[in-house]
């Protein structure tokens, strides 16, 4: 696996693969099943639909600040499966340093009260203060 620390995900994937084979009465010696998402986008969608209700708010770094496009989704599933209200960027980077502005993160979170704050990125090369984010 590309990322470490995914032991629980590995177990869930194996269980899903076994159940898919059983559901279609397929012989595992002849058939294989892969339930891994092909990229981070469907993986994020799966997490959002598991954790959030329609119209719940989520916050994540804006793309120019190092975030991921799917962390700022305006609407997932155009048929209404999971329309999410996205708040303004969690914490735009401080222009002078490029660092996350944790004070602004807290102000914005109190204002918009998101159900989920995403503490992950795609292109943020600095360390994230997860303890500080958890307090928010």
TrEMBL record:
It comes from the Eukaryota. GO terms for molecular function: glycine hydroxymethyltransferase activity; pyridoxal phosphate binding. Its cofactor is pyridoxal 5'-phosphate. Keywords: Pyridoxal phosphate. The keyword Acetylation does not apply. One of its GO terms (cellular component) is mitochondrion. Residues 1-136 form the Serine hydroxymethyltransferase-like domain. The keyword Glycosyltransferase does not apply. GO terms for biological process: glycine biosynthetic process from serine; tetrahydrofolate interconversion. Transmembrane segments: none annotated. This is Serine hydroxymethyltransferase-like domain-containing protein.
């Amino acid at each position: 696996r590309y990322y470490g620390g995914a032991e629980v995900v590995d177990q869930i994937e194996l269980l899903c693969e076994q159940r898919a084979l059983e559901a279609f009465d397929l012989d595992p010696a002849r058939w294989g099943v892969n339930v891994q998402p092909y990229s981070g986008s469907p993986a994020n969608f799966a997490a959002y639909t598991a954790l959030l209700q329609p119209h719940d708010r989520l916050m994540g770094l804006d793309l120019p600040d190092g975030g991921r496009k799917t962390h700022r989704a305006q609407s997932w599933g155009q048929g209404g499966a999971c329309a999410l209200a996205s708040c303004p960027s969690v914490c735009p980077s401080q222009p002078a340093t490029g660092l996350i502005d944790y004070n602004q993160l807290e102000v914005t979170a109190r204002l918009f009260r998101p159900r989920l704050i995403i503490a992950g990125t795609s292109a943020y090369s600095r360390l994230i203060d997860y303890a500080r984010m958890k307090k928010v």
